[in-house]
Amino acid sequence: MINRVFIFDTTLRDGEQSPGVSLNMAQKIEIGRALVDLGVDVIEAGFPVASPGDFEAVRTLSAELKGVEIAALARANARDIETAWEALRQAENPRIHTFIATSDIHLEYKLRKSREEVLRLAEEAVKLARRFTSNVEFSAEDATRSDREYLAQVVITVARAGARVINIPDTVGYTVPHEYHSLIAFLVERLKEAGFGEALESGDLRLSVHCHNDLGLAVANSVAALLAGARQVECTVNGIGERAGNAAMEEIVMILKTRADFFREKLGTALDTGIRTQRIVPTSQLVSRLTGMFVQPNKAIVGANAFAHESGIHQHGVIAHRLTYEIMDRESVGWSGSAIVLGKHSGRHAVDYKLKSLGWKLSRQALSRVFERFRAEIKDVLRRIPDEYLEGILYDEFLADRYRYRVISAQVSSLYGTSLRPIAQVEVEDREEGRRIAMAVGVGSVDAAFKAVARALGYIFGEGEDKGEDKGEKLRLVDFHIDALGRGTEAEGVCGVILEDASGRRTAGLGRDGDIVAAGIKALVNALNRLEASREKGEDLRRQLAREAEEEQKVEEARPMCR
Ligand code: KIV
Ligand code: ZN
């Protein structure tokens, strides 16, 4: 049997059926193009008879997307099939995907038809679709809850009628891998007995799987079916879809790639897809952004934590050798940046590694000083520690005597039930320019306080600034967050800010206080102090620390020779 697995992507049809998801045409085209770049074989673009919007989507994507098959869904009746074909006409390689349910539950309660009638409708539907194109797929909806003998009869009938792909959906996510494997193996056998052995071997006839995730088994079931002889997988990006979703494309593709050894051992050959795996994460992020469906951080492959190592033991292992705790290369699926995430479990190795990746070379003694500060000041305060905060404590440790600014006092109003706006008044000391007082009005009290501090020290923030009034250096507030350390209204407030100047230099600041506005002011002044000191002395410090590290290394290398 062929070793190529065809990826049938139904993000734009079954995925778009996710509760709360509705994509406009421009968004569908953007996702369609991303799927072509990703290398999927088939894009199911919609269900044309369902609505004029669906019809238009299939029509537009058929015209726009090249180098991919475009499928349109149609129930097993003439109107659906003709409408699907009408929408597909302009596609380079169109596929009509017709379906009817085969389980007794659906026959009795939904279709109110006998098995014989459904068998006839299935056959007629495929024959009608074949009049338009030789690329016809048939799906036996709710196949996994259908009587096996009857299902085999339907499958053989539609194969004889000319279906090129026969899909065996687990419509309600009911099956389990062992059972699904045996069902697909049984259907392969029946098709062989009916004379379709060669067509299955060559891939001219393909069994397809389409699994829903109601029991969390969609991917496992799909893989079991591939082991039994299916060669098309229907799936969606990020596993979005009806109810608990569909099988996640990225997981299936990476299982086949990462465990090629296993498939080789079981089947005598690895199973390949045409997916360009480096496009997986960018496509996942695009789909998440456009559908508004958030990807859980611990989601395999595409979740933010999927390749992030935070615990000290794991970080140490990964720094020593990636294979200790990583089974895939994060870059191979499109992640960039470092896998080492600093957090409350991080140890000295991770801090050292991060500083090195930021271009800092530290002696053991200097590293200890930074690590102690890391442990005492930020480890338990921030959940995730961006690089800017780590560099920040390094500046605090070695450059604090260069810090220029100090807030002497501040008064900030906080309003409720009035259309007046909060005002902040601050008195600051600039070591070079002396004391200054400034006032500002803000959207809220933190905003007013930030503006007053910035005005007093000669900076302007971002785009939404008081137009024209302020003069000073423009800075961008890249990140701002407020958190509580502990519970209840007496909890200490923590504020973190990251600033960026026009040259792209970034510094972070952290402030803690029982009053959240005061915490914000402290964070801002901390970031500004670090910014000024790093501009003035940052490079000198980098060189000085590197020199000390080299000297320490020389002494250590010389030591055994002295003995
Ligand atoms: O889940 C299902 O059975 C379907 C079919 C229409 C293929 O989506
Ligand atoms: Zn489905």
Description of the molecule:
This protein has 563 residues and is of the alpha/beta class. It has 3 domains: 6-291, TIM Barrel; 312-385, no CATH class; 401-537, Alpha-isopropylmalate synthase LeuA, regulatory domain (Double Stranded RNA Binding Domain), CATH 3.30.160. 45% of the residues lie in helices and 18% in strands. The chain has helices spanning 25-38, 52-64, 78-88, 104-111, 115-132, 148-161, 177-202, 218-228, 249-258, 260-267, 280-291, 312-320, 348-357, 364-378, 387-399, 445-457, 516-562, and strands at residues 6-9, 42-46, 69-75, 93-101, 136-141, 165-170, 206-211, 232-235, 405-412, 423-430, 434-441, 459-461, 473-485, 492-500, 506-513. The strands form 3 sheets. An 8-stranded parallel beta barrel has the order 1-2-3-4-5-6-7-8, surrounded by 8 helices. α2 (52-64) links the parallel β2 (42-46) and β3. The longest helix has 47 residues, at 516-562. It binds 3-methyl-2-oxobutanoic acid and zinc ion. Residues 14, 169, 171, 210, 212, 242 line the site of zinc ion.
